[in-house]
Amino acid sequence: MADLEKKAKIRKGYRNLLTRRVKEGDELLKGMEESGDIDHVKLGQIKLSVGEKLTALKKVDEEIIELIDDGEAIVREIDEADRFNETVYEMLARVEAKLKKSVEKESVSAYKSSVRAKLPKLDLPVFNGEITKWFTFWDSYKAAVHDNPDLLPVQKFTYLRSLLSRSAQECIAGLTLTDANYAEAVKVLESRFGNKQRIIAKHMEALLHLDPVSWQGNTLALRALYDKIENHVRELAALGVEANTYNSLLPSVLMSKLPSELSLAISRKLSEDDWKFDKIMEELSQELQARERTLPKPDSSRRTSHFKESKPQRERPTSATLHTSITHCCYCDEEHAPESCTKVDKIDKRKSILRDSGRCFICLRRGHISRNCRSSIKCSLCSNKHHTSICMNKRESSKEGESAKRFNPKADPFKSATLLTDAKGTILLQTAQATVHNTESTESATLRLVFDSGSHRSYITEEVCRKLSLRIVGKKDLIIATFGNTGGRRQSCKIAQAVLETNEGNTLVLNLMVVPLICEPLVGVSLNDCIRGYDHLKDLDLADPGTNGDVIELDILIGLDYYWDIVSGE
């Protein structure tokens, strides 16, 4: 009995203490509601203190019930303890709700702050069905979209479809845009493009079929080859393929892609024990770095009239061309230059056609008259401001042409090689000086080129081919017809390979037909005198500095097979 009384007093003490704590908690919560501030520390202290005291009180209640034998008394004890505990539980619930609400509010505030932050735009790669690019695409897409819990499946499907093209897009074209089809689309793509063994085989195949570099001086091509090999090797390593797996195959493949001189230089540095793929790549990297350090730096302020891409927005006449830009005859509507028209050969008739069709007498274009023409074109016969096709001096040249018809038409064609047409006009041919290299050695020379858009093929003289010891890569039979000759003669020409280097350091491999002679020697002119007569040439650094009356020879003729590659700079 004494034990029961003792425990009853202990319980009373716990209840009094809990009553005070509950009252403090109620007052604290009420003050926070009024002020709007939340004291997390005090709320936490009350929660912890009340929780410990309530646990101790429950234990004492259970001990008291064990000491009571009367059933009705036990029921009364349980009912009294439950009513008291409910008051405590109610206060603890309010404290817990206040703490949880505060945490949620802070989370929302932090999220809004992160949304307001100006993050860089994330551009995901587009997958076009190239199997070697699948894992790169999928890893970036998975991190940004697939694993994003805030996106619905249909939203992820929309993103996925927008990032696919070609065969990858066609692969899931039959699936409608629904939540259920997203998982199916991912499964189809992984089955089609995620086959690890197929990807490894594709990388190995790409390594075997890389384009070789034939000239050791083409540092840009060598660097591009090195980077491609490195990319494939890194992809293979990411797929778990170690270097010793392909050490017996790739060294010989790599060496076959390099110029013979470079292969020999690397072979001298490596012993038989070091003849491994990674060692060869290290030596190649060092060779490339050494060559790149010695590359000439292009002068960005240098302006040239050749090897630069012309602006398509504005057409400007130039004296460095072989053909006029107008190839459609405005007199007879046929495809030839207007000054070459034979159907309408009377000057008066031509002027009448121009006048009736509203064309300019200088540039032959519609929309303005000669008084308002901004073109700097001058007549090539008399240097006056009108088009050559309506020049009255043309009659004299026509008479000379008629007298020429009396000569034997079967005679050999005339060879004309002069830059001067008459005492008044000077024609600048489209020529350039450039460095030409041997593809297999360090031999090189500065040669003079002429650009001929009327020739289908490009040519080089036998003398230059022999001087540079150019590699012969083939032979071809051609029918060569000269100007003014209705027939042609069949000639077997060797094909020599050379490398053309521009002032900017760019290179282009040329396959040139070897011929004895391009044309008869030309008589050079002083470009300073010519430039003074053409305003649009004054600020240009011409690709051919010209000569002052010296006899010059043309070494290479660039035809349409390489014409636009060089002129456009591409």
From TrEMBL:
Keyword Metal-binding set for record: yes
Gene3D superfamilies: Zinc finger, CCHC-type
Keywords: Metal-binding, Zinc, Zinc-finger
GO terms for MF: nucleic acid binding; zinc ion binding
Residue ranges, compositional bias (Basic and acidic residues): 291-317
Keyword flag Nuclease: no
Region of interest (Disordered), residue spans: 291-320
Lineage: superkingdom: Eukaryota
Protein name, entry field: CCHC-type domain-containing protein
